[in-house]
Design brief:
heterodimer; A: mainly beta; seven-stranded mixed beta sheet; four-stranded antiparallel beta sheet; 11 strands; 0% helix; 57% strand; B: mainly beta; six-stranded mixed beta sheet
């Protein structure tokens, strides 16, 4: 069966520090991968999505970047965090064919 | 452009009552999918139900049903016989080019 792993679960980082959040999918190949951010009490905002290795689409200009070095690995990064980067980050995957979207357990990032 | 609107920031319902969560959408794509997710306080996103734009019948999954009115561009979630464990945030989402979420409705079930 397919599983999605996301870590860490919580993270407290100082302003100006770098960030690296990792997401991996098991049990499938060539998944579509997504990074979403959720501000407190709000809906999910799509940040990046990827349909293949090295193929990244950015939805919102911001302080973040994404990379997909391997088929089932999706990384969210920042060189210098801002206070406004705080939030709940969710990784998700969907099959190339089919409608299901499966989410990871999320990372709660607090920038202080 | 895709847009999802959930107009109910919060709802309070007595246990065992039915509840309807509203969702309207807008897209120019003829092919799209509509989703409902539940997000408990733990933060995980739990898939509840899916409706395709070409599906003739309303989707049902156990106590969940989706009232799909294509002409009105609405996709309301109906939860029958609500339970205390149904208390959570509920998100409507639409996939045309990409999966876009509404702002959510916080549902509280009172005993």
């Amino acid at each position: 069966s397919q599983t999605i792993h996301q870590w860490p679960a919580t993270l407290v980082q100082p302003v100006g520090s770098p960030l690296s959040l990792e997401c991996t999918v098991e049990g499938t190949s060539n998944p579509n991968l997504y990074w979403y951010r959720q501000a407190a009490g709000r809906g999910l905002q799509l940040l990046f999505y990827s349909i293949g290795i090295g193929q990244i689409s950015s939805e919102v200009p911001q302080n973040l970047s994404a990379s997909r070095p391997q088929d089932r690995q999706f990384i969210l990064s920042s060189k210098k965090l801002l206070l406004s980067d705080s939030g709940f980050y969710l990784c998700a995957w969907s099959p190339v064919r089919g409608y299901g979207y499966t989410f990871g357990s999320g990372t709660r990032l607090t920038v202080v | 452009a895709q847009k999802i609107t959930q107009t109910q920031p919060g709802m309070f319902v007595q246990e065992k009552e039915a509840v309807t969560l509203d969702c309207t959408y807008d897209t120019s794509d003829p092919s799209y999918g509509l989703f409902w997710y539940k997000q408990p306080s733990s933060g995980e996103m739990i898939f509840l139900i899916y409706q395709g734009s070409y599906d003739q019948q309303n989707a049902t999954e156990g106590r969940y049903s989706l009232n799909f009115q294509k002409a009105r561009k609405s996709a309301n979630l109906v939860i029958s016989a609500s339970q205390l464990g149904d208390s959570a945030m509920y998100f409507c989402a639409m996939r045309a080019q990409k999966l876009v979420f509404g702002q959510g409705t916080r549902l509280t079930i009172n005993p």
